[in-house]
Specification:
Blueprint lengths: L3 H4 L1 H10 L7 H9 L4 E5 L5 H8 L3 E6 L2 H8 L7 E5 L10 E6 L3 H4 L3 H14 E12 L11 H4 L1 E5 L3 E13 L2 E10 L5 E9 L3 H10 L3 E6 L8 E7 L6
Parallel strand pairs: 1-2, 1-4, 2-3, 4-5
Antiparallel strand pairs: 5-11, 6-7, 7-8, 8-9, 10-11
């Protein structure tokens, strides 16, 4: 079940405005160019920011996400007709034969169920052509990112045209490693409505992920640093081998 931050229509509508700096996607655009990708599967596409960046460059994109409200926001954007949008997950995709599959931001960590995670990796494998690559990021548990998730460091007031001011902040609600749970709170000044979104992320160790990728048939080509969070994340580059089912 998607978090309310992505599934609630009012929250999905302001998601981009509350997180306008998506420079984290530059590295993924760069990798699409590096690998010569002409067809890309964007797993957990959300409101479609990355999918549309690729589509603007003439790349054929399939965006899939289980949160219908977020997909509806994506479909309403300029240029959205250049993307194939699917409301669902990566476990039941049609044959695609893409050059690249991606999970940007928190997508990989938000798949906390071990079985669903393995099924997602398998779905990505099946969606790739032989030689195609899967790229995703996940935070290094040793850096304990959740220790910075508190109201004092996250509180913000964002003024959104046509919406008004929105207060937002995050607070950790439970740390039971490898799982970390947290809650975002949003206050809409226009009518005083308070909405919350509870999330849980799984912090996987690097060797664990490498083993899981190998178990699904991938070859791990490398683990890179995240340009936007140097030293804090693993960026996995895995490949579906040529000539293997």
């Amino acid at each position: 079940m998607p978090d309310e931050g992505f599934e609630h229509p009012r929250l999905a509508a302001v998601y981009d405005a509350l997180d306008p700096d998506r420079s984290d996607l530059d590295a993924y655009v760069g990798m699409a160019e590096e690998f010569g990708a002409r067809r890309v599967l964007d797993i957990g596409c959300g409101t479609g920011v990355f999918a549309l960046l690729l589509a603007e460059r003439g790349i054929e994109v399939v965006g899939v996400d289980p949160a219908r409200a977020s997909v509806d926001v994506a479909r309403a954007k300029t240029g959205s007709e250049g993307v194939r949008w699917i409301c669902g997950d990566a476990t039941g995709l049609p044959p695609l034969r893409t050059d690249l599959a991606t999970m940007t931001a928190n997508v990989a960590q938000a798949i906390v169920d071990p079985v669903l995670w393995q099924e997602t990796l398998r779905g990505a494998y099946e969606a790739l052509r032989p030689g195609g690559r899967l790229v995703f990021e996940t935070r290094d548990p040793a850096r304990r990112a959740w220790e910075e998730w508190n109201r004092e460091e996250s509180y913000a007031v964002t003024r959104i045209p046509g919406v008004g001011a929105v207060e937002s902040w995050v607070e950790v609600t439970d740390v039971s490693l490898p799982l970390v749970a947290f809650r975002w709170t949003y206050v809409f000044s226009a009518d005083g409505e308070v909405l919350t979104s509870d999330s849980t992320l799984r912090f996987r160790e690097r060797p664990e992920i490498e083993e899981q990728l190998t178990a699904q048939g991938f070859v791990v080509d490398g683990v890179r640093d995240a340009a936007d969070r140097p030293g804090k994340e693993f960026v996995f580059v895995a490949r579906r081998p040529e000539g293997r089912g």
